[in-house]
Design a protein that fits this description.
By secondary structure, the protein is an alpha/beta fold. The protein is built from 11 helices and 8 strands. Strands 2-1-3-4-6-5-7-8 form an 8-stranded mixed beta sheet, with helices on both faces.
Length: 296
């Protein structure tokens, strides 16, 4: 299915995002795809700052600010209330960062997925706690500088595979997306909107101050993440059927790492280890996608 690029703008001018903010670009595209019949839940994250302070708001939809750990729980409650009211044409969107998803909010998200509540949850992944000063999260990749993993103590832990955690819940739809491929993102959001049950999006969104690069390169870096295989674009139906939506070009991982200051302290052996891990994970993804096609 090819997406119809909507003209509606739900995120309005005047928001408070940094220059080149991947989070604001992602929010704009997701909300364009969903439209005005949407209720949004935001925990403490960059998104809650971007939309602006009360009594002003750069969104044309109802918004509920929620505690850090409770995005999915609040979204589930809103969905239950809408069902009581008989309003089935309203999308409920949970929008949370990697800290509020991978770490602090994983319990309520797992509960919503276990119940298969009819919500669309987007994890806006900028790979650290950016809103509070660039501290490491479990989404931070190995070799990255953060305020809590400084130059002589770079992050050594692997990035948590949140997508596979959600796939293991057997929810109807899980997808990855990034701002460099807006048609792919809008297509997936429109498809998810027509599916009942829990839908989970892992949306990579570069952060200029946190990743240490010139703000004009946000889209370029997002594209490099896909072209190098660092962040594959795919979707999974019902925890079983994998579909790669944008093939990787097999570009060297170094091209992605070298344009970000946060990776500037990595050794050549660190870069090689990253390349080997990316190659292995890409081959695993291809095997999963091919296995389902064989059984089709």
């Amino acid at each position: 299915m090819k997406s119809i690029y909507p003209e509606t703008e739900v995120l309005t001018p005047g928001h408070l995002a940094c220059q080149g903010c991947g989070a604001s670009m992602g929010m704009r595209l997701v909300l364009k795809a969903l439209g005005n019949r949407t209720i949004m839940v935001l925990p403490a994250c960059c998104g809650s700052i971007i939309v602006g302070p009360f009594p002003y708001m750069a969104l044309g939809i109802p918004l509920i600010h929620m505690a850090f750990e409770a995005t999915a729980a609040a979204a589930s409650g809103i969905r239950a209330a809408l069902e009581v009211l008989g309003k089935e044409d309203v999308q409920v969107l949970g929008w949370a960062g990697d800290g509020a998803t991978f770490d602090i909010g994983i319990q309520s998200l797992s509960g919503a997925a276990d119940r298969n509540d009819d919500i669309l949850y987007v994890c806006l992944d900028n790979e650290a706690y950016m809103n509070t000063g660039v501290q490491r999260s479990s989404a931070t990749p190995p070799g990255a500088w953060t305020a809590t993993t400084p130059a002589k103590h770079l992050n050594e832990r692997p990035k948590k595979n949140m997508v596979q955690i959600m796939v293991a819940h057997k929810v109807p739809y899980v997808a990855t997306a990034t701002i460099a491929y807006p048609e792919d993102l809008i297509d997936k959001v429109q498809r998810a909107a027509g599916i009942r049950g829990t839908k989970f999006f892992h949306l990579l969104a570069p952060c200029p101050p946190g990743w240490h690069y010139d703000p004009r390169y946000s889209v370029k870096i997002s594209r490099l993440a896909v072209e190098t295989g660092v962040f594959p674009l795919f979707e999974v139906f019902n925890g079983e059927e994998y579909n790669i939506t944008v093939p990787s070009r097999g570009m060297a991982v170094e091209k992605y790492l070298k344009v970000q200051g946060r990776f500037g302290y990595m050794s050549e052996s660190d870069i090689q280890a990253t390349q080997e891990r990316v190659d292995f994970e890409w081959e695993e993804l291809e095997r999963r996608a091919a296995r389902k096609k064989t059984h089709a």
